[in-house]
Amino acid sequence: MGNEIKCDTVPIISNTPCDERINSLSCLFEEEFGTKPSFYVRVPGRVNIIGEHIDYCGYPVLPMALEQDILIAASLIQEPELHLRNVNSKYKSFDTKLTTFEDIVITPDVNGKPFWYSYILCGIKGALEYLHNKMNKGLQLYIDGNIPPASGLSSSSALVSAACLSFLHAQNISLSKTEIAALCASSERYIGTQGGGMDQAIAFLAEKLSAQYITFQPLQATSVGLPEDAVFVVAHSLAEANKAATNDFNRRVIECRLAAQILTALNGIPEDKKIITLSEAQKKIGKSLKDMIRLVCDNLPKEYYSKSEVCDILNINEDELENLYLTPNTKHLTEFKLRQRALHVYEEAMRVEDFRYICMNLTSNGKTNSTNGHDTNGLTEYTLEDTLSILGKLMSGSHESLKNLYECSHENLDRIVEISRELGVHARLTGAGWGGCVVALCPKKILEKYIEILKEEFYDKHCKIDKNNANAYVFATAPNHGAVVYLNE
Ligand code: ADP
Ligand code: NG1
Ligand code: MG
Questions:
Q1: Is position 103 annotated as part of the catalytic site?
Q2: pTM for the complete prediction?
Q3: Is 232 in the pocket of ligand 1 (CB under 6 A)?
Q4: CA-to-CA distance for 430 and 420, rounded, in angstroms?
Q5: Residue ranges with strand state E in 349-431
Q6: Torsion angles phi and psi, residue 26, rounded to 5
Q7: Catalytically annotated residue among 95, 199, 272, 298
Q8: What are phi and psi of 358, to 5 degrees?
Q9: pLDDT of 374-394, one tens digit each?
Q10: Rounded CA gap, 104 and 20, in Å?
């Protein structure tokens, strides 16, 4: 590898690694565009270890970057145009002129699903907006991705981020990692989902060998060491879920918004129609996470809240409710689950703090230090148990909550979690859910056996996939580094 320059910005490495994937992408690029790529951009996918569906509520999360990535080969052209090719033939070529960010209109296909290239357009639209439409060069991009798509491993954000980074690099602009992560998070919202920024943050701020504790406002990442006697295993449920193709994701976002608005309204906070998150509600009310959980149970006792009930509590009419708090794809909803969603968020935020606390205090023998100074939410009861078992229980708790309170699991995910539990391995769905992947905390000493049993019991017996062909669906992973640019000099 060449020399890295500027640590705070995305590393620009002055020579491209010589590997088979880059070589074959380079050949395809040259065949298609008649020139060599001038640079490559690599942005990893991620697995979120714990802290699901809480980034958009303002709470910290704990992801790590994967080895799987989106790799883009790029060259500059004089014309203000964009030419997109993909190694995978199911993603059809796309060419367009580039004028202003306002002219980039992102529309779905006839079934309401985004086109693959819309994720690229999101990244470029965001970058053009940031540059106030100043653009010197057009781009030719050839994309090679190996992150399982629509599977909760953040293929979408890797694609948006890789496009935004390519475009900014082509215009000679280099932002700090946190700036570009925040820009990519807002750019991806052009696809229609109101995500929180975890995926783009880890894409840029990831570091090899440690997970990252990511806080929002301000966006910051702190390295968190993981237990050495365990391995994180990712297992695909074989169900895909594109988050922008349905309103499941945004429905949860707006239910959290409404819960936050109601909690503040019922707790004497002066009326303010600005959207607030559940973490802002906590700050305004001035209570601990534990107290917020009690408050949710007291203030939001009902199973469902109708539109008119929400309006009555917030002292607004239905038009105001739609305009202030709902998204285009949730405007028609008539009922909202508020207690369940808010309970998940506050409890999951506590689980993240506990998980991080245990990891920060790992000693060389795999046990944790004393719990001095940390409100352990009852964890002291478990100090004699194995660290892995405490961490595992937090992960299992997260899954149960996502399944029962957040209702974003899938029968295949539950099946994998169940098979894991029978072997004493704790696992949870990772990413947004409704399909996608499970992440499991597997003691190193049973890793082979665990993967073998998943292949037999889930892939072979349950999904009728020969266990010898299941390698692509279940793999052990370790924290990888974040986005880089390679110059092809
Ligand atoms: P994820 O959980 O992977 O982020 P999303 O539903 O957010 O799932 O986005 C998945 C979509 O991203 C896919 O349906 C596809 O349109 C796009 N995508 C992912 N990987 C690639 C790729 N390698 N090439 C082209 N498009 C991709
Ligand atoms: P995935 O499943 O990778 O698309 C989504 C959101 C995250 C976060 C998780 C749930 C986007 C781009 N990503 O991830 O911000 O909310 O779900 O924890 O919206
Ligand atoms: Mg995504």
A1: no
A2: 0.95
A3: no
A4: 15
A5: 426-430
A6: -60, -40
A7: 199
A8: -65, -45
A9: 555 555 544 445 899 999 999
A10: 35
